[in-house]
Amino acid sequence: MKKEINILQESHRVLYRLANGALLTTKLQEKVNTMTIGWGTIGIEWKEPVFIAFVRQSRYTKEILDATGEFTISVPNQEIDPRILSYCGTHSGKDTDKIQDLGLTLVDPEQIKVPAIKELPLTLECQVLYSQAQEYDLLPEAIQRQYYPIDDSKPVKEKPDVHTMYIAKIIKAYEIID
Predict the structure, then answer these.
(1) Radius of gyration of the chain (CA)
(2) In this predicted model, what pLDDT tens digit does every residue of 90-149 receive, in sequence order?
(3) How far apart are CA 95 and CA 74, in angstroms?
(4) pLDDT for 29-88, tens place per residue?
């Protein structure tokens, strides 16, 4: 069962838990993939409630997001097994089925094709309105050093693995209740 929530009234709950980690889930055909996120925000853009998510260029999730334009955000409403967030943040969905590996329970979505995850019951169904890659050279130097360091020991400097920002309309918000 799902209990609809007003995301603007409940945004503080989502953001408070997001600071400790949440899951961003995508789906391409029958393949469901999820990854840990710790960056994001809720706001209003173009008179719509939006979730803004950040996904690194190198992530498998980015490929799916770019192809489908839909995702769910699944947030715990209490403490969860830290192994869930750790595993989903360190393993690629290209190589393994993280949902199956962790025994997570998928819940049918309301408005989009991407399922929710029962174990993290605060759910936002999102549809991408706009995306843009960050421009490394425009980021403050302190952020470049902390989040996008360049390995000076390598003979060829690799391009930093910056994030793409996804601004997505929150189509539906609810809490999964047993």
Answers:
(1) 16
(2) 888 888 999 999 999 999 999 999 999 999 999 999 999 999 999 988 999 999 889 888
(3) 22
(4) 999 999 999 889 999 999 999 999 999 988 999 999 999 999 999 999 888 888 898 988
Question: At 66, which helix (H) or strand (E)?
Answer: helix 60-68
**pTM (whole model) above 0.90:** yes
Strands 122-133, 70-75: pairing is: antiparallel
Q: Return left, alpha or beta for 147; rule: phi > 0 is left, psi -120 to 50 is alpha, else beta.
A: alpha
For residue 138, the one-letter residue type is: L
Phi, psi (rounded to 5 degrees) for 174: -160, 165
Is residue 38 within 8 Å of residue 18, measured between CB atoms? yes
Residue 167, beta-bridge partner list:
52, 130
Provide the token pair at 108: 């049918």
* Size of the chain, expressed as the number of residues it contains: 178
